[in-house]
Every structure is written in structure tokens, then in C-alpha cells.
Amino acid sequence: MADIRQVQAGTQTIAVRKDLRVPMRDGVTLAADVYSGVEDRPRPALVALSPYGKELQALALTMPPQRRPSPMWDGCIEAGDVARVVQEDYAHVIGDLRGSGASDGEHVGNYNAGGVPLGQDAYDVIEWVAEQPWCDGNVGMIGISYFGSMQVLAAAERPPSLKAIFVSGGHFDFYETTYHGGIMWLMPRAAREGRGGDSGWAFTDRITSRMLETYSAEEVRKRVAERLQDPDVAAWPNLVHVLHYPKHHEAWFDIVLNELDGEWYEERNPINLARNIDIPVYLQIDQGRGWTVDGHVELFEALTGPKKLVIGSYPPMQSRPWVEEHDEMFRWYEYWLKGVDNGVMDEPAVSVFVEGSRDVVTAGQWPPKDVEYRSLYLRPRGKLSPEPELMGPEHAAPDGWYQAPLTVTDKVEILSWSTPPFEQPTELIGTGAAHLFAEIDQPDTNFILRLWDVAPGGGRQLITSGYLKASHRELDERTTEGNPHHPHTRAVPVEPGVIEEYVLRLYPFAATFRPGHRLVVELSNDEPLADEHNALLPPDAFHLPVGRPVTHKIYRDALHPSRLVLPFTTVEAVQPQ
């Protein structure tokens, strides 16, 4: 018999079952806490699973929600508002994944526990929960980010008692989560090790490296030496340290050693597993971190059962403890777990908040409106125009910049181009592309492009972004107009001094540029660590800087039509200059 205690959350009394042992099919037991009302009766259950530690999630009972840039914001308190879950008459089950927190077993690598898929463990937890006397047999899941990804892994295993999931802010294609356009994103290390506003994983001595478990010591030494040949990696002290001393950095060590997409990522890719999901799935994501919006759209399109996609408003980071979206989540679960016909399934499958106009557009598919792709060309004197340049390169000299490594400067050089002020509201919804004809004097660099909505008074908001490591410029067969894709399965060094066309994917977005506003595009090979947008992100949410000095020339002439390809939904576009 589990020890049941009671705690107070405001005026509410909550029953807590602490440190329950949940048996897995291979004999390992996981630890879980259960929060519910004090009445001794069965009720539906919402399961939250992660390696972040169930004790950390309990802070939702005592800590008011914090928003960025509060220093008290902790990115790992993501299992939801415990008191609200109990108030809505669910049992809230918060468990530690194997090898983390109070659970047994080993955690090897990412989203895989050394031959035991984490989805398999989630299956066993869900079916165990459904059999408990305090559960009525109906189970859903709860939590954002890592918790959200766990929901997809669980649903793909098809546990019979899992009736629906509600996923917010998850990370899906695992390569695209860690390398944006082939450029390493440093935030996954923060989430795993506890840096820059994250507590990180509840580490134990049973979290080990998949690479160290799989390869011989000689092979690992060889791969480490090869990785250190990358000047970007060699110039970043934290990565040098991780590669030489992987102990206690095992999960991040694995990511650093796998800079190309392939089998190592694909076997953990929730997008591939999503085709096995047949239960209802609700996907929610806010604008501002384009790669997560992209992942939610990709997952939505891969699902074949009942599904919804809701893209919310900027800013990009939800509060911690996570409390947003609870109203909609409980409507979803009231329908699927409690059998209340509240009309949620009568509403359109896709709902998109449009920045600028603040309209909400609904439809049965993504994008929610018909799109016409139109080009805005980079022109001399920092201008963007719907009309292409007529002069050749001998007259329309390229724009350019030199970027020294951030080891010797703290200044990030940025080129920008702007439309004239819009004369009427102009709406864009969908993905986009940036075609850049560029010459560099090194074998590699980064291209980081960001689109801003700039108001007449100078205030601005990020609309979308695109990233591409130059050596990852190859496109694959999925590419269509305004919707490029890169395989990222090999790196092809650039021949210095040769003009190449680089096509950046612009992540999905929805924005209306109001009269008087301008669209401004900024291009750099590193990114500023603090600006209007980055101040809203955790401190480690930036990309690995380029470790060598690079001179860039951006050609935008009649022979080299550098341009943006954007998804216009309105008839009128930007007025010609």
C-alpha cells in the first residue's frame, strides 16, 4: 500500500502518492509521484515523463509562473500546473525516465535507453497507471518540450489505455532539433546539463554515452580528433572540454560527435514514428522559435488520425512552471477522456495566430490560406524590391562583410536590406526561402538570416529566421519553390573565391505587415547574443559561432538574383521602388 500524504495548494487539498515503483517489462522499475483529489475514487490520469526530475516538477505547487527574462525562469519545469490538473479531477502522474532521478536502469544516449526505446517504457507506465485503483482506465499525457516529445514516442507504441495526447512545444526531427541548417544549436546542452536558465537532467551515474557504448576506444579517439578539425568546434572551449572529458556530459558528447544526419538520428526521429500513431493528437506551438514551428507542422502532416494544429502568438517562450494552454488542453481531454461532447472536434483542424493583424486564421490544413510565392530581390543601398536588378556584376558590385572570430571580437557584423513602408496590410503565411549568391574566402561559414517587422517608430519584432552551414548547401528531392530542404548527410567544403547559390529555409510563420511598417532582412554568420528577440530566450539559446575569419560577398545583380521567396496571401505586394 502506497503512503498517501496530503498537501495544501492555496485552498485546495491534494493527495500525494510519493515514490511509487512502476515495473518495466525487462524488470527495471521507474519512480513516479501521483497527485490527485483526496476523494478515494478512480479518475482519468495525465502522465508526464522526462529525465528532468519529478521533484523539480513539484515546484509548480509553490512557485508562481515565471516569464523570460526573469532569472527565476527554469526551462525544465514543464510538467504542467499540478494544482490545476487536480482541480480538473485528473490524477497527475509525474515519472522519472530510466537512468534519471529516482528510477533504476541506464539511460544511454537521447530518446533511447540502450536498446530499450523510451516509448516502450512510456507504454509500460501508461498501462500500469490504467490498472491502478485511483485511475478509471483512461489515460492522456501532459507536458511541453521534452515531455511533449515523450508523448509522441509513447503514442507511437500504441498503448491501449492511451486515449489522446496534447503536445505543446515538443522537439521532433532530432537532427533538426540540434543542428539548424547544419549549424549546431547550443540549447540542447543547457537542457541536458543545466546551463543558462535550465536545471537540466536529474543526472545519475547511470546516464551513459551511446557513442562510448557502441564504438571502440580507438574509434572514439579517431572521431574526436576528426571533430576537433572543425575550426568552429576547436574555437569553442566548452566543446573542446566535452570531447576530451565526456564523463557527466554523455548525452551532449553524443550530439557533438554526430554532426551529420543519418541512422543515429533517424532511429530516434519522432516524425518517422508518428506514422504509427492512430489516437487523437493536439499540437500547439507559439511563434518565435521557427524550428519548433517547423517540427510541429511536419509532425501534423505525418499524422493520419484525428489531429489539430494550433500556432500561437509571439513571444517564443512559455512560462515556467508551464501553465499556458491549460484551458484548451482540458477541453481536449474532457472530450477524449471524459466523453463530454464540448464541440472541440467541430472546430477547424488548423488555427494560426497572425502577427501584426492579430487575426486568427482557421482551416482544415496548413497553410490555412492559398499562398502565392513572390520574390523580393536584394538591391543596392540595402533595399528590397519586387523588381530584379537589371545591371550585371560589373556595375552592381556585391555587398559584403568581414567577420572576425568571436574569440577576438565581440562585434557581430550584420548586413541588412529593407522594403519601403507598406502602403496596405500585406499578409504572409507559410514557409519561405532565401536564395543567396555568395562568395567566401574560406571552405565554410554560417549563413544566419532573420526577418523583422519594423514599425514606423523603430520598434521591431522577429518574424522568422533561416540557418545554413555553407558546407551543407546541397538540396534534396523534397525541395519546391519557397520550401527548400537539405539532406545534411554530408558536408561539402566550399571552394574559396567561387560564387555559389545558397538556399536557406525560412521557418513557417504568419504575419501581416501593416501600413507604414517595413520588412527588414538581416544577414550575418554569427548572431548577436542580446537583442530584442534573444533577450526573450535562455542565455544558451544561440548557435555555435564560426571559428575562423571569413570575408563574405553577397552578389545581387542580373546574373546572381539574390532574393527572398515569400508566401503572400494577399493580392497586392510591396510597391516597386
Strand content: 25-35%
SS content category: alpha+beta
**Helix content bin:** 10-25%
Instruction: Round the mean pLDDT to the nearest integer and report it.
Output: 93
Shape: globular
What is the top-level CATH class of the largest domain?
Alpha Beta
Number of structurally distinct domains = 2
- Total helices: the number is 15
Distance between the ends: 77 Å
User: Could you list the spans in which at least 5 consecutive residues all have pLDDT below 50?
Assistant: 573-577
CATH fold descriptor of the largest domain? Rossmann fold
Number of strands: 26
Notable characteristics:
alpha+beta; Xaa-Pro_dipeptidyl-ppase/CocE; single chain; Xaa-Pro dipeptidyl-peptidase C-terminal domain-containing protein; 577 residues; Galactose-bd-like_sf; 26 strands; 2 domains; Rossmann fold; hydrolase
Describe this structure in words.
The structure is a single chain. This protein has 577 residues and is α+β, with helices and mostly antiparallel strands. The chain folds into 2 domains: 4-347, Alpha/Beta hydrolase fold, catalytic domain (Rossmann fold); 371-569, Galactose-binding domain-like (Jelly Rolls), CATH 2.60.120.260. Strands 16, 17, 18, 20, 23, 25 and 26 form a 7-stranded antiparallel beta sheet that branches. Strands 1-2-3-5-4-7 form a 6-stranded mixed beta sheet. Strands 8-12-13-14-15 form a 5-stranded mixed beta sheet, sandwiched between helices. Strand 1 (4-9) and strand 2 form a beta hairpin. The longest helix is centred in the N-terminal third of the chain and has 13 residues, at 118-130. It is globular, with a radius of gyration of 24 Å. It starts with a strand and ends in a 9-residue tail after the last strand. Mean pLDDT is 93; it is low at 573-577.
